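Hi R.,

Here's the chain you asked about this morning:
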Amino acid sequence: MFENLSLKIEKAIKNLKGQGRISEINVAETTKEIRRALVDADVHFKIAKEFTDLVKTKAIGQNVLTSVSPGQLYTKIVNDELTQLLGGEHKDIVITGSPAIILIAGLQGSGKTTFSGKLAKYIRSKGRNPLLVACDVYRPAAIEQLKVLGASINTDVYTELENKNPVEIAKNAIAYAKEHNNNVVIVDTAGRLSIDEDMMQEIFNIKQALNPSEILFVVDAMTGQDAVNTAKNFNDRLDFDGVVLSKMDGDTRGGAALSIKSVVNKPIKFVSNGEKLDALDVFYPDRMAGRILGMGDVVSLVERAQSVYDEEEAKKLNKKISKNNFDFDDFLQQLQQIKKMGNIKDLMAMIPGVGNKIKDLDIDENAFKGIECLIQSMTPSERQNPDILNASRKNRIARGSGKSIQDLNKLLTQFNDMKKMMKNMNNMRAKN
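And here is the predicted structure, written out as tokens:
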């Protein structure tokens, strides 16, 4: 996401030269390159021009401190304006009412149903008890898909297979939620291949009947400016509360994310990446601006880590490390925790300065599988004490894992090096 845009903006700012002051001369070419980069990213030309004109106006004449280069100051100005273009302050979803009702809208194929499942999982993580409601009565697979998603996250799904009236289904679902202590109702509505009056009237009728606390419009980010135009048409009729950008992990240039707030004046609230139900990110304009400018997103990286790490388990692990008792069981557990955090390339891109450097790097998401197979082929005693691994044990482990002796020896060397590093760190702590 935003890889090409990020690369071009970074290149443009690097070319900025000047001594102690940003002038119209030394900023003109940089601004022109950034405008071109935005248009290439499928941002509407008018929005791109307004953005770069504003950046240029704020930059010209700025005094540069001795400790700051013109490029650094210009980057700050671009970062501030990008944050505003993306929405300014973060806006959370509104969950009020008993039950709270969240209405999901969008075109067919935009990822509404998958997002509904992701949102239910997100809301469960906040300690609430959601109910998914299948109001797409035209696409049979939609109902089944929602049931499968609900089962995978242990969430109730309300369906009426014989009823073809989505307004009645939605009303009945609210009554069901009140009886079964579901305090949040997520209504997945029907989409069409294109905007039509029947579709608009149907979802408007559902809105009128339910009076939801939140209406979220799901839009396929891969459709670029078409996504922005669709959002405007829906907003004119529904006056929705927020936007969800789906398929941001695909071949998208980011134009929809950069344009949509300016066109509909509604915040982006979530970004959906991929099909996995934990592949959902709350949208923070300032963090996204930082990632576009290659400054990373350490806060989101830490939050992801906190979401998968258990505090008590972390204390136990620290105790084992301090006593130099870290073993392969612990190592395997840490690998599995890292995998829960999401796509490895996405995680690396959150580290400041790393983003564009791994743009063309092919990172195998199954890279940990070979290591896991080797460890899982060991006996409990071998995991706890790798020193007992002789030639015959190694042969057995290699055969059981489908890997080579060389692969096992490499893992053992890396594991021993890591234990030595942990021991040295413990010794340094003890001295301090």
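One quick note: DSSP finds 19 helices and eight strands in the chain.

Cheers,
M.
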